[in-house]
Every structure is written in C-alpha cells, then in structure tokens.
Amino acid sequence: MQSCLSLNILVVFFLLFSGCNGIKAKGDSAYIASIQKWHRERIERLKKDNGWLNLVGLYWLDEGENSFGSGPLNKIVFPKDKAPAYIGIIILKNGKASIRINDGIDVKSSGKQVSELNLVSDSANNPTELALGSLRWVLISRSGKYGIRLRDLNAPLVKNFEGIETYPVNEDWRFKAKFEPYNSPKIIPISTIIGTVENDTVPGEIVFEISDTQYKLEPIKEGNELFIIFADKTNGSETYGAGRFLYASIPDCSGNVDLDFNKAYNPPCSFTKFATCPLPPKQNHLNIEVTAGEKSYGEGH
C-alpha cells in the first residue's frame, strides 16, 4: 500500500513539473499528460529505423558514373569498417538513376539480392531502399539535384540518445486560432538549409492573438493537417537557430484551428548535418519568444 502511494505521488509530481529548475507546468492533469505522451511518442519515432538519428551520410551525385564503397578513391565514400572498399557504381543520367553492384557484394532491396537496378527517389511514395549489413540508403531528389542518403541502424546517436529538453507544458500556448483562406492558394518559395529552394502551396493564414496582439502564420497543407515552419525570438538561444516545426488541425466548419505550440519540435537538422531541412519563410518569423515545445538539442548543426 505504501509503495502504491509513493508511486502515485511521483506520478503527480511528474505531471505538475517539467523542464529544468522545477518550473511548474500549467494546465489540467489530463492535458499535461497528453502533451507528455505526444513527446514520448515523438522520441520513439526518432529512434526508429526510418527516424532521423541514424543518418550518417548525404552524397550528391554527379552526372554519369559515381563509384561508391568505403575505399577513399570512390566518388562516394561510405563509413570505414561498415562496407567493402568497392561496392559498385550509381549512374545518374538525365534525372534518372540506376545502380550496379560488383560481384560478390551482398546488397539487397526488398529482401532480394541486387546486381543491377533502376532507382526510385524519395519524391515517390515508395522509394528504392538498398541494404548492406547495418547500412541503408535511398536516392533523394531536391530541386533537380540527386543524392544518396545513408543510414546506419547501429549509429552511435541512436544508442546514446537521451531525449530532448522541453519547456514546461503551458496551456497558455494553446490557441483556438482562425483560418482565413486565400481566394486562391498561394505558391511561396521555401529555402532549405542546403541552399536549394522548393515551391510550396499555402491555402491561407492562421490568425491568433497573444495579449491583444494579432499574429499570422502561413501553413502548408499536408494530408489532414496544416504544417507550419516558424521562427521566433528564442531561436539561437534556447531553441534551434533555424526555427522549429509545428502541425495544426485543419479548420473545422467555423474556420477554427487548434494551434498548440507545446507540440513545436526541432527539425531534423538539429540532430544531423545530413538532413535537408526547409527554413521558415519571412512571413512566419514571430516577433515574440515562444517558450513552449522543444528546446535546442546538443550543439546543433
């Protein structure tokens, strides 16, 4: 009985306090628990085979033949001791890529050994994934550039990852915002951390108020959600310097949107230099400190 009572006290303490310095969370216990559950699930997704913690390489392809393997003379040099010296070549020709594997090298795709194969990039729903030992790689396409993104399922960051510090949960950062649709969707340029530009479609504005001051964000529609790339005045000090990401609900029949900055999270580039993250457009730079959601991770990239 005593142990159960002690456990209940610990649970209550965990719900009421988060972040550092014992700062008290704000909100009812069910809401606080729901945000903490969301964050735990976010951490678990990062650790998965298709998460962002196991990226170990990003190699841009030249037109023509690109040799690859762990040998230093290859165009693409895989991590030492993780692959044979010469695995094969990746051929890029007029925006199409194929792979040719050297004899005796056990590269597989969908469980079948590969000798030659045309590659489907990540711009499609089902890109070609290749495997060799603990390594996995796919072809990526970014603004007319093609590259190989490499993962190591045994990457040190996956094993050593201890989570991400967050601000204490605070219901004051949850808003019933309004969605104001444009007469016709607007195409906006989104710069990326690697210097490319992608065009995305914005269906309208999300409008909310803090202390009688109105703020607006332009989201991108993704499936049944609105995706927001935003910056604020905590960037570079307490949060990741290149901004954060946030999903919001699509508007209901009255145009209401559930906008909760407690679910603001770091882009992949905060964990690895091998990601190609979009940057916040100028109109999504908020002139306030958003003290909610994830803080910076480590040294940043």
Task: Write the topology of this structure.
Layout (H helix, E strand, L loop, with lengths): L1 H15 L12 H19 L7 E6 L3 E6 L6 E2 L10 E6 L2 E6 L6 E2 L2 E2 L2 E4 L9 E4 L2 E8 L2 E8 L3 H5 L13 E18 L5 E14 L2 E5 L2 E3 L2 E6 L13 E6 L6 E5 L41
Parallel strand pairs: 2-3
Antiparallel strand pairs: 1-11, 2-4, 4-5, 5-8, 6-7, 9-10, 10-11, 12-13, 12-18, 13-14, 15-16, 16-17
Task: List its traits.
4-stranded antiparallel beta sheet, 13% helix, Tumour Suppressor Smad4, 3 helices, 5-stranded mixed beta sheet, elongated, mainly beta
What does this protein look like?
The strands form five sheets. The chain has a five-stranded mixed sheet with strand order 3-2-4-5-8, with no helix packed on it. A four-stranded antiparallel sheet has the order 1-11-10-9, with no helix packed on it. The chain has helices at about 1-15, 30-45, 155-160, and strands spanning about 55-60, 65-70, 75, 90-95, 95-100, 110, 110-115, 115-120, 130, 135-140, 145-150, 175-190, 195-210, 215, 220, 225-230, 245-250, 255-260. The chain folds into two domains: about 1-50 and about 165-285, no CATH class; about 55-155, Tumour Suppressor Smad4 (Sandwich), CATH 2.60.200. The model is unreliable at about 1-20 (pLDDT under 50). By secondary structure, the chain is mainly β. The relative contact order is 0.13.
